[in-house]
Design goal:
With 137 residues, the chain is an alpha/beta fold. It has a single domain, classed as HUPs (Rossmann fold), CATH 3.40.50. Helix content is 41%, strand content 28%. Strands 1, 2, 3, 4, 5 and 6 form a six-stranded mixed sheet that branches. Strand 2 and strand 3 form a beta hairpin. The longest helix has 14 residues.
């Protein structure tokens, strides 16, 4: 049913809850997993300013990959950089490019307050995705 699963992680508590859920589904369905972390950045006075949380993107993805691999689930990691506000679009594009049949994402991420005002990354992914989206609380 779900041969390819995309898991979006951002280092937030809700995001970390997506990993065991996706791992369980992947084991049940014999799926491969793509772990995606999207970082927003902006050019300011000639400098590239990372607007993401104060954590190492590679370490975050590597830690998630280790959990999947320890569970016997084949997994790859992807890190993308986008301009502010483009995170939902990027998640959808990576899901489409990887032929994901399911996107697993947390209900609230690192930009919790902003997402209440702007509609949230998860909500925008649900609205725009061409495959099912599983929201994890």
């Amino acid at each position: 049913m779900f041969e390819r699963i995309l898991v979006a992680v951002d280092g937030s508590p809700h995001s970390s809850k997506t990993i065991p859920v996706a791992s369980d589904l992947a084991k049940r369905y014999g799926s491969t997993v793509t772990v995606l972390h999207v970082r927003e950045h902006e050019r300011y006075e000639g400098q590239d300013v990372d607007l993401g949380p104060p954590l190492d993107a590679e370490a975050l993805v590597d830690a998630a990959l280790a959990i999947f691999r320890d569970a016997g689930v084949p997994a790859t990691g992807v890190i993308r950089r986008v301009t502010p506000g483009q995170t939902p679009k990027e998640i959808i594009e990576v899901a489409d490019d990887s032929d994901a049949q399911l996107i697993v994402i947390g209900t609230r991420g690192m930009t919790e307050l902003k997402s209440l005002v702007l509609g949230g990354v998860a909500n925008k992914v649900v609205q725009g995705a061409s495959c099912p989206v599983l929201l994890v609380r």
